[in-house]
């Protein structure tokens, strides 16, 4: 059974640069470092508030053409059974259960109905540590493009055990449906428009701070470049948001509304 959303995985070009960005600039803690010898890839878990990002830095940069967010990983206590039942339900298998490249535990990959790569992990340690105090109050959500919203809700609700936390609909011209599903602390946001959208399947991660404008000023002073138009009022009317990018172009949003569970 799947019992938690463990991490969002990202491929990065320069491990040192990414670790510096997430720890020194954003206040994350490194909770695990390992090597995947078969592909000469460094694997570093950084924890931001209560959420984790897995940074994967290949030794050979020509081995990949795409960097940034790559997959969403769930922990299970029975990988063979879950992989079998999820793929039997019609979801596409990508990598059969096997020993993890780091040698620790077993992993498998499959595709969610919108094409997001989903990792299943079975191991004796989730790597998550007690939260460290920083400017990040919580890891608010991981945002996924859900062109087929019904199928996304069926997959995450039926196969991963997540439940709906909140729904928002923003009237035209935005015409945007936002659905939040969670597994305890961990939240996934589905973004859906009537017309199918192109773009990154894992669109961004969102971090909750006390005050977006103050945090944006602090990050700007450390050389972080914000997207044009940031900070701005959130489309939901709840608080302010600002968007910047990590070292490999991964999109990061800061927001200062209440925790979704308290809305
Ligand atoms: Fe992973």
UniProtKB/TrEMBL annotation:
Keywords: Metal-binding. This is VOC domain-containing protein. It comes from Paenibacillus piri. Residues 4-123, 138-257 form the VOC domain. GO terms for molecular function: metal ion binding; methylmalonyl-CoA epimerase activity. The keyword Metal-binding applies. PANTHER family: BLR5325 PROTEIN (PTHR43048:SF5), METHYLMALONYL-COA EPIMERASE (PTHR43048). Transmembrane segments: none annotated.
